[in-house]
Structures
1.
Amino acid sequence: MAAKMRMFLKLSVLLFTCFSLTLPVIAAQTCIEVSETNPPQNMVLLIVDGMGSGYVSPGMVPAALDGSLIIPPEVPFMDSLAAKGVLLPYINVPDSRTGPAHSVIVTGYSGAQPEIVAYAGATIFDVLEDEGFITFALMHKGDAAAMRAEQDVILFSEDNSITEPILKVQVNSDAVPPGIIDELEYWKQQLPVYLEETAGIESYIAYSDWGLDAAVDMVSLMASQYPDVKYIFTINVGVLDSAGHYRGVDGYVDVIEGVDRRLEPLYTAASESNTALVITGDHGMAFRTFDGARGGHASEDYWFDEALTVPLFIVSPNIVPGVIEDGHGQEDVALTLLSVLDVAGRPKYGDGEAILVKDYANLWVSSNTDAGIEVLQGPETIASSSGGNSYFFIGLKPKINYTVRISNGDELLEQVVHLDVDRAISFGTSTAYVDGNMWDGENRRKVIASILIFLVIIGGMMLIYRIEH
């Protein structure tokens, strides 16, 4: 029996060794705060479906396809957001269809289609979950199955009805605090109250009011009951898009004004809980005439500035307030949101670039071996560290050239980087290769899976041994 037990132990060790070789090499990231920063803990991402920049950006007047001017909505709160935060009025939409546009926003990939959202590591939600964030959402529309699956929990409409929507709470993770689920269930029951005795455009506005009131409540709930939980809360107000399609210019303008009236409480709740508030559109809306009865955005007939340009409002404790007139692509939104949160990761397929909206920039440096590192501004060493292969320098002065130097034994390598926005650079040395990537969620899942497989095999062997003996 003793001989058999020794054989069993030797086989167990051999199996563990084999599985250990399949595990990814874990590169612990070293964070170095060069200067004091004040990033938000959480983020609220409000996507107003169909909100074109020309209708809500100060000083802009929307035009119809025939060249006539449209009287813009009165949006005093959005007008004030540039003073409270930063406004980028010229975000160019690469694909003005609803599904692709939502996909571009969350993946940072200009060619994104809804299918890519389901790929591992493809979205800002994947990146933030790896950083310990929970993800939850409330969506009227724009909630394809892949987008819903990205959320730990989501309250959404299963149809596009305005007057009798079918709502559902979908829970995708056991990590969601029960109070969040309960609150979403409560708001699911409240929509009929908002819609009661409404008709026409009043139903659209009531639906929008419900969504934004629920959003305020959820942000307040997180602050009071879960102050230490980091989260990204995504809201999609879909009724504006429907109003543009079916209620013409007048209905579209009325709903925008309704949205604006409900924004200040959301802004206040976010500001009081160290939460960034981001407001954008997935696409805009174009009309053939200044009083057009029907708008559009997806077909070539409507490919016009009003349909292809959306605003990006960001209110956060670490941004520089004002208006950035430069044009940027919608694919830049994802990286900008992660930059505001001071998160180093990026969606796997993104081709966008972070927009500098802070008064500092961050630098992520990775190496394929453990190495010492220095960051220099001219001859002066700004920061240094050693013993790792992944470093995240936070709070560097932007728009400056830095020299990044790493040393590994007798080998010395350096790169010059212009830190106009958050940047990531990597080094390769002549030593044997070691994976220098951050230990992301995919690697973590591989580790867990490998360990579980090993335990199952050992458990099975022990069971067999007990049956035989």
Note: Residues 2-24+440-468 form one domain.
2.
Amino acid sequence: MNNYFHQKALTISQQNHSMCIHFPLFRATSNHGSRIVWRGPLQPTAWSEIYETEIIYQVPCRPQIRILSPQLRIREGFTKCPHTFADTTLCVHQAHEWNGNRLIASTIVPWICVWLYFYEVWLRIGVWRGEGTHPHLPEHNAVLRRARAAA
């Protein structure tokens, strides 16, 4: 995109309006100019638990996502949950897939639901079936972890 048509990031007001329409159970717990915090429930499938989720957004940075409850579990034999950062926030997309011009309600929130679905699968079978840029890490794939341990 050239400099003449550079889009500005959506405002907090625009992001919050979209969240209110698409996810009315999410509430803004704080809203300070260019920073907002939403909290609300997500249930990836009808059989899933309901996850109390927190999204912290500072325009135009990558949103930070935390699961407040229930506490995420780490499968036995693993050191951490797959696709999480060191501070335990979720990694739900690659850096190039989101920017401040996109609505959080139509990108980040659905991606959180997909992450939660694959998290539940991972808890059951020990393999992260979701895509990502680092599925080769032992924490993400039990088969590779066992193969490396045997070598």
Note: Confidence is low (pLDDT under 50) at residues 138-148.
3.
Amino acid sequence: MTEAEEEFLDRAFAALADRTRRAILARLATGDAGVTELAEPFQMSLPAVSKHLKVLEKAGLITRSSQAQWRYCRLEPEPLKQVSDWVGNYSRFWEQSYERLDEYLKDLKKTTEQEGEKK
């Protein structure tokens, strides 16, 4: 993994570590939204929400644009796919671990049944 990829993952996971930012991303998954709309579910000031948006933007997870006096935010799916792919590498590990456990349990059951037949 390159240094740039490592730095991206650091920023992305830091951004995703906060539940408010995850909720903002979940909302943006349904479509673009303005800052005021994104702030509605939270009991915090617009500047506080704006700070969360800056973290998400710096991580590359969203982009912000202006139309007249309105600021709109958009989810950037490609960086989230990179995060998902990285996590996916570990899901393969767990799947293989479960497969090994399944084989072990089958062998254990077979051995137990054979010992029961001998008695």
Note: The chain has five helices and three strands.
